[in-house]
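seq as requested:
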Amino acid sequence: MARWRAIGLFLPAWILPALLGWAAGSARADDGRESSPTPETAIGRPGEVLRAFFTEQDVQKRALLARQFAEVAPPQWPVVIQMLHRTAPFPSLAPKTHALETPADGDAPGVRYLMRIPPAYRHDAGVAWPVVIGCHGTGGSAGGFMDYVEVMLGPDADKYVIVCPEAPTVGVYRPEASMIDYPLRVLDDVRRRVNVDSNRTVLTGYSKGGYTTWGTVLFSPGQWGGAAPMAAWPMTEAGTAGTTFYLENVLHLAVQAHWGEHDILPGQTQGINTLSRQADDGMKALGAARYEGIQYAGQGHQIDLDGPRVRGFIAGARRDPFPARFRMVFHRVSLGRAWYVRAVTGSKPDFNFAARQTLRADKPMDAQEARRMILEREAFEINVTADAGKNSLDIRATNLREIEVELSPLRMDFGRAMTVKANGLKLLDGTQAVDWVELLETARRTCDFERLVGLRLRRGIPPKAR
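struct tokens:
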């Protein structure tokens, strides 16, 4: 993962310590099979082929096995998902708290984390489990926050695999790559160790961990079933000017935000409370149907959490991995990783938040308004509209010259002609069979079995500036 760090015009260093720390309805495959749930999954020959695919180390042999599976695969996509969960090999893990570490990522060291396996979990039972990942605050630890999450979940604790990472940096939160990438690295590692229901992964955190929760889901919303940031506002490199700027990225994500009414330091005019209310107003203005903001009257940074309300949110949070319509804005190409259309190459450099910026204006404006106009001018943007009737995707991308599109049989009908356009250019026009090698290799690599990718397109597109 790219590593970056910027504190400048948009986020003065002094402010940081002060702020603290479709499931398919009627999708068909190329052979026209209907996607509908069935009460159980028959293993037999298809299961044998899948097991062999997961354990085979030779990529060419796996391709042969994928094609064999295509010949005997069950006709319903939910059953295919069930089979992936039942045949994928997972290590045996005792019901206790395990100390683990992700692999290193380039020059970034592994992330250490604790994972609590509940008593009922069985690695070979073929049952997918929901996961709660909790990020600790400044001065905290994975162990301390594990205790907090267990208390928060109360009687529901044994219904989840609970994961608490150690933050990769000490001190207060800074919106750096390491701080918003480490929950993703942990989630990737957990999926390889545990049979995870990836539509039910919830990210939460308190104070510094709340900032991490916001920062992570703003730029990877398609990885999560829900997010519950606590005692934090959506701080990014854009600083307070960006408090509401990126919120549209999470319109399809279940979010429950918590903050104290009086969470502000003496002498401040803006604090966690005021900026959380600003974000709350922004989400409501966007019509965010899956958002809930909870302000704790009379409380400061240490809030007495409404446990039943949090438990209800986590129990009900579900991901839609392929929403029909979404918009994603970002200022680094590496952060354009939402849902199923992702940025690959920009038609301009990433925005330098630390550099001095100029803006021509025909009227007086305050600094915040000027900063927001600069953010709008310099942003990369992806807008996607899926039309089920036309079996089409219309993609409008700004300041990008290359994108990657993941077409899923859970969203597109592979039994009919499909059209995919980007900035007016047709990337696909006609009938296309499911690429079973791509589908199974993606499942094997990510262990995100709820995101079936039937075809992957990586294409150059006509650049479009603002």
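The two ends are 28 Å apart (CA to CA).
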